[in-house]
């Protein structure tokens, strides 16, 4: 039997464990609690002629290196290389949830977005053109309700299509980080690509952005190369120039460009109920 390894990645309380339980028949604890242990729960199930190995990863808001959860998820993605990342997001809280999505897109991993708690979005009266939003970011989005299992077959079918290379919406759209940052990303990225000693587990773009953000773990990855001094000097020159020109911190600019992109994409695709009411009165 063919196997697809999938990993659930998303913010805390977006419904990952509910999805994991319903898909794999496990009975992991669901709800508002912060676990004391940071680990991955593994399960499996059969669907559509495949064996799915599924992993429920700790909840995380970002793929930086500031919390044990972030580090755990990032190391998992690096070491285990799941075939498909299932990014679980809360449909009615995309402003916040899609930040992590932009980081996964930077990583260039095959992925599908589970637009979870879609029931809550519908009850609120809001509407989301998720097909258009999926096209804007280049990742297929599937509405799900992991509490009941609604939408999960559609999710698994989409995962299979992405795995088999048959899904149309799979050309990731990297968030353009603007004229101050992009040239530096390109320079650092090209230097990373040209260095055979730097592993390919993370995409050069992701590594470049994280280096510009002074991510200590990515610095450690880069330091495995005998040529790392030149690369880190290039990074320092880029950062210094950006900060001199903008008077702003590089990480802050990157975050604000990403949130700006998300806001813009949602402005075109998400209509909340209060705005709808305002239009009709
Ligand atoms: P995790 O932290 O991402 O693993 O999230 P959980 O699976 O523990 O779910 C957090 C809470 O959201 C629980 O109370 C779930 O019952 C609830 N929940 C999960 N999925 C859905 C959904 O699709 N709709 C609704 N309304 N609630 C959900
Ligand atoms: K939880
Ligand atoms: Mg959980």
Task: Characterize the structure shown.
It comes from Muribaculum intestinale. It is found in: Cell inner membrane; Cell membrane. This protein has 281 residues and is an alpha/beta fold. It has 12 helices and 8 strands. The strands form 2 sheets. It has a 6-stranded mixed sheet with strand order 2-3-1-4-5-7, sandwiched between helices. Strands 6-8 form a two-stranded antiparallel ribbon. Strand 4 (84-90), helix 3 and strand 5 (111-116) form a beta-alpha-beta unit. Helix 5 (130-137) packs antiparallel against helix 11 (250-269). The radius of gyration is 19 Å and the shape is globular. The termini are far apart. The relative contact order is 0.13. The model has no long low-confidence stretch (mean pLDDT 92).
Fold topology:
Blueprint: E1 2-10, H1 16-24, E2 41-47, E3 50-56, H2 68-80, E4 84-90, H3 94-107, E5 111-116, H4 118-124, E6 127-128, H5 130-137, E7 141-143, H6 152-163, H7 182-193, H8 204-212, H9 216-222, H10 228-246, H11 250-269, E8 270-271, H12 273-280
Parallel strand pairs: 1-3, 1-4, 4-5, 5-7
Antiparallel strand pairs: 2-3, 6-8
The structure holds guanosine-5'-diphosphate, potassium ion and magnesium ion (MG).
């Amino acid at each position: 039997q063919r196997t697809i390894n999938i990993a659930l990645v998303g913010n805390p309380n977006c419904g990952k464990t509910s999805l994991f339980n319903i898909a794999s028949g496990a009975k992991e604890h669901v709800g508002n609690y912060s676990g004391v242990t940071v680990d991955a729960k593994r399960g499996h199930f059969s669907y559509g002629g495949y064996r799915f190995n599924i992993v429920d990863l700790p909840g995380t808001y970002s793929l930086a290196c500031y919390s044990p959860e972030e580090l755990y998820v990032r190391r998992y993605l690096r070491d285990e290389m799941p075939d498909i990342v299932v990014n679980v997001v809360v449909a009615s809280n995309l402003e916040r949830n899609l930040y992590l999505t932009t980081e996964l897109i930077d990583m260039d991993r095959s992925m599908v977005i589970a637009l979870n708690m879609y029931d809550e979005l519908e009850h609120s009266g809001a509407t989301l053109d998720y097909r258009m939003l999926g096209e804007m970011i280049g990742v297929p989005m599937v509405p799900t309700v992991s509490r009941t299992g609604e939408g999960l077959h559609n999710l698994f079918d989409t995962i299979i299509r992405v795995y088999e290379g048959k899904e149309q919406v799979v050309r990731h759209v990297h968030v353009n980080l603007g004229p101050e940052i992009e040239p530096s990303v390109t320079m650092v990225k090209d230097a990373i690509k040209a260095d055979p000693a730097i592993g390919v587990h993370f995409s050069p773009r992701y590594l470049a952005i994280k280096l510009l953000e002074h991510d200590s773990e990515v610095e450690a990855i880069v330091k495995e190369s005998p040529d790392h001094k030149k690369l880190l000097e290039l990074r320092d020159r880029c950062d210094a120039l950006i900060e001199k020109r903008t008077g702003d911190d590089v990480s802050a600019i990157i975050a604000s460009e990403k949130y700006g992109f998300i806001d813009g994409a949602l402005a075109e695709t998400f209509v909340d109920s209060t705005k709808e009411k305002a239009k009709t009165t």
